C-alpha cells in the first residue's frame, strides 16, 4: 500500500553486515591443525602455547584499509602474568584519510561482473538508466532497518550535530549542486551548520515547464523538517527577475507562484533559493525560511542557471558577516573585538562589537579622510581596515594659544583610536568569539618625537600619528594557503608642544596608516617573498635530461 511505501522511505537505510570478520582472519596461520610460533591469532594454539610466545608476529588484523571506519583485532602478550597470556581486543579503528570508503554496502563491487553490453533490445533501458546527467548506483537489495524509529518517534528527540544532513519527512533538505559536470543534482543534502552556496545548470522544456518539479517553488518547501517539533518551511520573500535582469521584490510572500505558460513564455521559474535556518544552542531547529528568485524563459531556452544558498543563525543572536573561510580574503574587513569586564566570568560572550556605535560588524577601523582635511570635522568618521590593503589617511589640526593641553590630547587620542580601540583581532576570517585561541592581542606602543612646536608655555605631549602593522602568514597547504594574522602592533607617536604668543596659531598634521607584512618566508631585497621547500632532489632526478 502507499502508506507502507511512504513509511519505508522515511526509515533510515543501512547497508548489509560486513563481509569480512577480522576476528576470524589470521595471515600468519600457515600450518594446518598446528600452532604457528608467535602467531597470536592462530586458532590452533592453546593457552600453553601462548605462554611460550615471545611476541606477536601479527599484532593487528584489519580488513580493507580504505574504509573510513572498521573493526580491528589487536593481539598482544601479557608478559607480567604467570604464565604469560595472550590478550585479544576488538576495537573500532578510524581512518584519518580524507578519501575513504564509508561502507562496503554495494555487493556487486566486491566481485568483478561483466558490464551489460548495449543491444537493440536493451538500449532503451540502459539509456533511461544511465543517459541522464547523473544517476544512482545504489542497489535495490539494501536491507531496511525495521528496528529504526519511524518519523513520528524521531520528532520527540530530534536534535542535530554539525554536518549531519537536515532530515525532512520524505528524505532530507535538498541543496542542488553540480556533481561531475555543471548539471544540477538534487542528491546533495544540506548539512547542519554548514553554510553553502552552489550554482548549477538545469535543463528545461518550456512546453512542459509546469511538470518540471525542480523549477517550482513547491519542490523546495513542500516538506517539513524533522525536529523536536515539526518545522514547516515558510516563504520569506519572493523576487521576480525580468528577462533583462531587473529584479522586483513582491509585497506579499504568502502566495505560491507556480510555473505556467503565458504568451510563449514560462513564468515563475525558480532561478534561486536561499534557505535560512534558525536553531538553538542544543541543536534544535526552530524555524526555516526560504527566499526565492523567480524568472521567465522563452521557448528557445534549453537550460537555466540556478543558485542555491543556506545559512544558519542561532536564536537571540545577530548574524555577523565573515571575512573568509577560514583564511582572510583580500579586500574584506579585519574582524576585531575586546575582552569584556569580568572575564573569565562570565564567559557567555567573550568578544563584542567595538569602535564606533555605527560599527555593528566588529571591524577594525581607522580615521577616514575628509574633503576639507579638518580633524575636528572628521571626528566620528571611520573606515574599516581591509585585509591586504595598505592604507593611509589624515587630517590637519589648527591649534591656537587658547586651547587646553589636556583637552587637546584626549581629542586627538579619540580621533586616532576611535571610540573603543580593539584589544584583539581575529586570526582567521571565520574565527568565532568562543574560540579564544583564534584571537590575536593588539600590542599598543607609545613613542615620542623630538620635534617641538612652540605653542604652550609648559611641555605638552599630544598624539599626532597612529601606525598599525599587521603581520600575517600563509597557513595550511601550499596548494591552497589560507591567510592568517599572527601579530598586530599599533604605535602611537606623540610630539611636544610649547606656548605661542597670543593671537598666533599653527597647523599640525595628524596621520593614520596601516601596513600589511607577509612573514611566510624571508624576502630578498627587491623580490616578492614566496614559500620555499627545504628539500634536495636526487642527483639523477632529471636523467637523461640536463
Automatic annotation (TrEMBL):
Family: Belongs to the tectonic family.
Pfam families the UniProt entry points to: DUF1619_N (PF25752), TCTN_DUF1619 (PF07773)
Keywords noted in UniProt: Cilium biogenesis/degradation, Glycoprotein, Signal
Source taxon at top rank: Eukaryota
GO BP, sorted A to Z: cilium assembly; protein localization to ciliary transition zone
PANTHER family in UniProt: TECTONIC FAMILY MEMBER, TECTONIC-1
Tectonic-1-3 domain sequence ranges: 159-315, 324-503
Residues in Tectonic-1-3 N-terminal domain copies: 18-123
Keyword Glycoprotein: yes
Leader peptide range in chain numbering: none
Any one Gene Ontology cellular component term annotated for this protein: MKS complex
Protein's UniProt name: TECT1 protein
Residues passing through the membrane, by range: none
Gene that this sequence comes from: Tctn1
Subunit structure and binding partners: Part of the tectonic-like complex (also named B9 complex).
Database matches in InterPro entries: TCTN1-3, TCTN1-3_dom, TCTN1-3_N
